[in-house]
Design brief:
137 residues, alpha+beta, 36% strand, elongated
Length: 137
């Protein structure tokens, strides 16, 4: 969404607060070790779209703290949601966790991909979305 920071691919699952504007939405992702992370923040933090049909793809900006090569998973990244927008978990904590390379968009990719990238297209590319939506949270 910003063209400077990498973006994390998350699943937006629902509106959590529609009293004010912008609305608050819930976002979910599973890290490389199977831990589910749930975030709640203003809709513009995750997407530039005004109308959403859930589940859909969100792209909050993040920072990369470390990069590694895992023999089983390939390239993985330790990311932080603290910067640039202070995205925190539903418990109110900023998060740092390891993700797969396919869960990350770099600045150039983020600019070249349309914000209407379909949930189905990304689900077909990677199985990390199917787990997000079907598991019991």
């Amino acid at each position: 969404m910003n063209g400077i920071y990498p973006e994390l691919l998350v699943v937006l699952t629902r509106i959590t607060d529609s009293e004010g504007y912008p609305y608050f939405v819930e976002a979910k992702i599973t890290d490389t070790y199977g831990k589910a992370w749930i975030f709640v923040d203003k809709m513009p933090v995750f997407t530039s779209r005004d109308k959403l049909v859930f589940p859909c793809v969100g792209r909050p900006s993040c920072t990369i703290e470390e990069e590694a090569n895992d023999p089983a998973m390939g390239k993985i990244f330790l990311i932080s949601t603290a910067k640039p927008y202070g995205v925190s978990t539903e418990a109110g904590e900023s998060a740092s966790f390891w993700i797969l390379e396919e869960q990350l968009l770099y600045a150039g990719e983020a600019e070249s991909k349309d914000s209407s990238v379909s949930f189905d297209a990304l689900s077909a590319k990677s199985n990390f979305f199917s787990k997000e939506v079907t598991d019991d949270w």
